[in-house]
Amino acid sequence: MEKASSACRRLRHLLLPKRKPDSVVAVATSNTQAxxxxxxxxxxxxxxxxxxxxxxxxxxxxxxxxxxxxxxSHVEDILQHQKQYESIKNEHFTARLIHxxxxxxxxxxxxxxxxxxxxxxxxxxFSPSTPSSPPASLAELRQGDRAVRExxxxxxxxxxxxxxxxxxxxxxxTGSFDDAxxxxxxxxxxxxxxxxxxFSLLLGELYHSGRYLEGENAWNLMREKGVDPDVRCYNSRxxxxxxxxxxxxxxxxxxxxxxxGLRPNSYTYNVLIKGFVDEGNVEEVKNWxxxxxxxSSAAPDIFTYLRLVPxxxxxxGVDLALELCKNSAGLKKxxxxxxxxxxxxxxxxxxxxEDAKHLLHLYTLPHSQA
DNA sequence: GTAGGGTTAG
Length: 370
What we know:
Blueprint: H1 2-15, H2 23-47, H3 50-53, H4 57-68, H5 72-81, H6 91-103, H7 107-121, H8 133-140, H9 144-155, H10 161-173, H11 177-190, H12 196-208, H13 212-224, H14 231-243, H15 247-259, H16 266-279, H17 282-294, H18 302-316, H19 318-328, H20 337-349, H21 353-362
The chain binds one DNA strand through residues 54, 56, 90-93, 95-96, 99, 128-133, 135-136, 139, 160-166, 168-169, 195-202, 204, 208, 230, 232-233, 235-236, 239, 266-267, 270-271, 274, 301-307, 310, 336, 338-339.
């Protein structure tokens, strides 16, 4: 059955008009189609397990991957598939699916699923959690006004902290930072308290877009409102300081968060490393990489290595570059092939054939040129 | 146990 349907799909694909008659392109596209179809089938199989359905990351990753590639029918396929499981009666599960449609920018599907909730979940909707998914979906679509005004009115619900946070995200993403910040006033007027999530998002957007002073204002506002910054809030501010090349202040802030008992995570270290890489400060880059390796609350990740490998090649030495590549080989996300090749080329320049071979072998790259 | 919150560079 499955074979027949995938054969049909292939046939349909062949019958579809092609813009590019180039046979090489056609074969590549067909391979890609088959690859994504495979992703869908695998995902459906995994969905059979309740343990899998409780996880959030694989859903997000699959939807992101498929929607980025423009395979919206595949997104629909895997999300509609979830309706057959008991989990669909759990409104939290269904709310997640709604948001996933939003993340794929499939608003119509998101709202339709929301409409179906009463009959799917066997419970009346609008328990505190459910109506937050449509605003979150609208935020993904950068529609702040609709998220915070039109939709709550339509659903006869009062916007809560999550609605506002979603709207803030949408406003920031469209560059309407003033609108985002002014939502804090509106929240205060309505007695809705912002929390660490609200501020981590706002701070991140402000600092990340180069609005350092506005970020600092928001940070002070957060303190005035008695909201305790968590690791992500601190990270946003550290990142803001790094962007402003205030490395000493950034380091001091990391020390402050440690003193408060907040454990720096990989993001924290990566931001500092990025700052010192941009400064060309070899000693501090080495220090913070060592600190990250020794940390009990963080570990190097792919972003660490993406930054460090080119820097090691250019400013430190091929030995460190090789060591970094080896250290990163065990990660699920791999370094780009071109980056690994740069390191192996450098090794060959120094006639270190065995090291180069070993490196390419680690990344299962052919080394016939060697 | 259950919502809304990060980066990379070519």
